[in-house]
Predict the structure.
Amino acid sequence: MRWGIAAVAAVAAVTVLALAGCSNLGYYLQSAEGHMKILSAARPVPEWLSDPATPERIRKRLILTQRIRAYAVSELKLPDNASYHRYADLHRNAAIWNVVAAPAFSLTLKTWCFPVTGCVGYHGFYDENRANHDAQELRAQGYEVSVYPVPAYSTLGWSNWIGGDPLLNTFINYPEGELARLIFHELAHQVLYVRDDTTFNESFAVSVERIGGRMWLNTQASEQARKEYADYDGRRRQFKALQLATREKLKAIYDQTALSPAELASRKKAAMQEFREAYVKLRDSWGGDPARWRGYDRWVEQANNAAFGAQAAYDELVPGFEALFRREGGDWKRFYDAVKALAALPRAERRRRLEEMT
């Protein structure tokens, strides 16, 4: 999930919950309805390609996605199914909006639990206004909250019988390398999903996208595409390094249990100020049109414990998974089997083994 898996729980469970009189029925209904609207908007890629009204840029991107999709099966041994053979224009800039929340002096995210998928550290909404309303309620409870757009999510293969997860306008124009990574990431969730362990699931999918993305760029992409992606990814890596350093600094502050709330607040404020000042220097080093960095600007402006906590889920265990891939000789099937073996272990044990591999 780069992204968001909660919709599959809603689709699978809404009928049962209705019969049970579940108090969260409204949330499940909006998830089920929102997901079905996305599926109903999707048309097979060949239909888009044969439609004279399809813009030429979209036509070229759709052809590229089918090359990426075939590569995912032949080289990365990812599932060969209905997903990503259809396309939908949602006429909005996100598939869903995720809400994450954390206490004032912790990076540990609040969790929500769902049938089928278990507990996750986010609440997903198909309507931005509903997401913002949910965020306001959480703020009233004392949480720091972040609301962010999600370009794609996985239904873990549950929707393949009705067309599969579709390609969307929310990511179709990504740089080639990032487009490939996103497709690889979401398909990785169909290989394996562990209940109640977001960090394991996301770190696994990120490791697949990183390794697979490098392979695609090195063997399938043009020199121009490689350069475009190198520039894009170079900035992202620099920003993520700054995020990580700040996250570690905040964690060290919050771990000092002897400090009073006032002292914690003062040190937290100083760390956040250092983060923002360091970002300005980093952004200035990139040069170019300042408008290009608005996404980064927005993240930094709204950064809080929830935002930093959400980021941790995507990269914390990635080095361990990448080491495991090397240990398995770069063989994708052996790698997936090894990951499934780890998934069968208790949560603390699989985490310990991954950390020991780095």
Q: What stands out?
A: Confidence is low (pLDDT under 50) at residues 2-23. Strands lie at 43-44, 86-88, 96-102, 112-114, 118-120, 123-125, 144-150, 167-168. DSSP finds 14 helices and eight strands in the chain.
